[in-house]
Amino acid sequence: MSSAAAASAASDPIAPFSTRVGWIGTGVMGRSMCGHLIRAGYTVTVFNRTVSKAQPLLDMGARLADSPRSLAALSDVVFSIVGYPSDVRSVLLDPSSGALASLRPGGVVVDMTTSDPSLAEEISAAASAIGCHAVDAPVSGGDGGARNATLAIFAGGDPATVRRLEPLLSVMGKVNYMGSPGKGQFAKLGNQITIASTMVGLVEGMVFANKAGLDIGSFVSAISTGSAGSKSLDSQGKRILQRDFEARFYVNHFVKDLGICLKESQRMGLALPGLALAQQLYLSLKAHGEGNLGIQALILALERLNNVKLENAGSSNLEFKECAA
């Protein structure tokens, strides 16, 4: 494709009848997010290392690719949402099997994994070198936000490219443009820092109330309508009361996110003691073999630390809401 043709392709409007979508990563969130695009009428090709996890999307009409490279050859826009930065590097940048090895000029890669800002910048530079575009667009809202298409999407990259992607991104949630390549990742890391410290405050308050002899259900319900109320309290409070530690967002992935936050904070010369404490508490869960539980399992770390277990949970009037990690 000539440079003129590439420029034309990059400015073509995105629409179901003309835009081919590739989707890499069909886990708990990716499967729901991709499903919205299929229901919106887009032609979608998917890749996942465990094919069975992609089966619901294949049943909806998606095609299956045997590698990110073969997927990109059939796509105009390639999305990825995988586990770790090393996975992002593999599926997008690997010279033999990665998506950028076959994406045609004018194509776009959109990485929605929470990852390193520097990796987002590297992907953007690699895409630009072959006449393509890259956007980092990590999300917040957990599996509930993915299912309900209410995710907060933090987008970094060329503003015109992000605007052009709006028909795709808006199918999954609300797009927030954060700035140049890597800035979407920085915004998501700030989001995770906020959640981490909020979770520490939540479980400490519950352990304190329990020790004071309060009915924990009544306590959580009471503070939810005051200044201590938060989405974390709404989404996690009732789960903790019910001892429901099923993962909507894995401890293992949160440890990864907070590790990136600490690394970036150190690079910027920032001291964030709340972040460091939260990371240590979540690492203790992982050390106890609880990495596949949800982030609400932080209460287990506080219970162990104080040799207590929440009692008198009672009944809470909290409305059950989805995780916003």
UniProtKB/TrEMBL annotation:
One of its GO terms (molecular function) is NADP binding. Residues 182-299 form the 3-hydroxyisobutyrate dehydrogenase-like NAD-binding domain. The active site is at residue 188. Keywords: NAD, Oxidoreductase. Residues 20-179 form the 6-phosphogluconate dehydrogenase NADP-binding domain. It holds the Pfam family NAD_binding_2. PANTHER family: 3-HYDROXYISOBUTYRATE DEHYDROGENASE-LIKE 1, MITOCHONDRIAL-RELATED (PTHR43060). This is 3-hydroxyisobutyrate dehydrogenase-like 1, mitochondrial. It comes from Corymbia citriodora subsp. variegata. The lineage of its organism: Eukaryota, Viridiplantae, Streptophyta, Embryophyta, Tracheophyta.
